[in-house]
Design goal:
By secondary structure, the protein is of the alpha+beta class. It has nine helices and 14 strands. It has helices spanning 71-76, 87-93, 100-103, 108-114, 120-127, 146-149, 171-174, 228-236, 251-269, and strands at 8-10, 25-28, 44-47, 56-59, 62-66, 131-135, 141-145, 150-152, 155-156, 163-170, 177-184, 191-199, 206-211, 218-222. The chain has a five-stranded antiparallel β-sheet. Strands 11-12-13-14 form a four-stranded antiparallel β-sheet, sandwiched between helices. Strands 1-3-2 form a three-stranded parallel β-sheet, with no helix packed on it. Helix 2 runs antiparallel to helix 5 (120-127) and helix 8 packs antiparallel against helix 9 (251-269). The mean pLDDT is 93.
Length: 273
């Protein structure tokens, strides 16, 4: 879609963009949402793709993902051995409601910053205990836990002009066992609910992440695999207003799915492997 309010495009921003940020600016990476509908408040686009941020930087301690990393690039990533939970990277890419054209343009950071309930990059990074590196317009930097970034439907903690620079997934999370469940109304439809659980090898802990069915990620943490009643009670304790409503599912339907899948997950990860 033509953005007829845009009067300027910054093709080569400063290495650390933001110092000359103005009201009406918009960061441009993949642009798959930006160009999908009118943006009446946008006056200038700041193109981040020319900054050539590294897409994927694995090391012995974890994996750094550049905010401008394309979904296609993440999907094709071959993780080093010893990271069983790295399978979630590909699984989460395949949870996109998107064509191959979108995969070749959309970015990890763009999906996160859109902060929609069904954003699979949010699901993935929250489940893997990731942190986000944020750059502010005054040159300062802060780190935010992925689980604390999204605060509502299409809402997050970014300040005006602040930008997501990268995502860091710790190696400890990538070495965990995991399982996931996802429900859609149609085979290639938007997620009604997307749940991921991880467990540390040779330990009793369980981390259950619920997204798509809730307005922000809900993380249920257990020191040991709970019994069925405890798991169900924890899901029932999620406030009613947190469950999301849209054409893909009512809050009651999504709560029902969460409880159903939680029991499957609890049983699957409850073994001592």
């Amino acid at each position: 879609m033509d953005l007829n309010t845009v009067v300027d495009v910054v093709r080569r921003p400063a290495p650390r963009p933001g110092a000359d940020w103005h009201t009406g600016d918009a960061w441009l990476a993949g642009g798959t949402w930006l160009f999908s509908e009118p943006q009446p408040t946008v006056r200038r686009l700041v193109d981040l793709t020319e900054l050539d941020w590294p897409a994927l930087a694995p090391d012995g301690d974890g994996l750094e993902i550049g905010a401008t990393c394309k979904i296609r690039t993440l999907h094709e990533f071959e993780p080093p051995g010893g990271w069983p939970a790295a399978g979630l990277l590909r699984t989460s890419c395949e949870a996109f409601l998107a064509s191959f054209k979108i995969w070749n343009s959309a970015t990890v950071g763009g999906n996160i910053c859109m902060s929609l309930p069904a954003g699979p990059m949010i699901t993935m990074t929250v489940a893997l205990a990731a942190t986000y590196r944020l750059w502010a317009v005054d040159g300062t930097e802060r780190t935010v836990a992925a689980r604390d970034f999204v605060i509502g439907n299409h809402q997050n903690v970014l300040q005006p002009g602040e930008i997501l620079r990268s995502v860091y997934i710790p190696g400890d999370a990538l070495r965990k066992r995991y399982t996931h469940r996802r429900f859609t109304l149609t085979k290639l439809g938007r997620s009604t609910i997307f749940m991921i659980a991880t467990r540390t090898p040779d330990a009793g802990d369980l981390l259950l992440t619920i997204t798509a069915g809730t307005t922000y990620p809900v993380v249920l943490q257990f020191d040991s695999v709970p019994d069925a009643e405890t798991m169900q009670d924890r899901i029932d304790a999620i406030p009613p207003g947190v469950w999301f409503a849209d054409p893909n599912g009512t809050p009651d339907h999504r709560r029902h799915l969460a409880k159903h899948y939680a029991e499957e997950i609890r049983t699957e990860l409850g073994g001592s492997r």
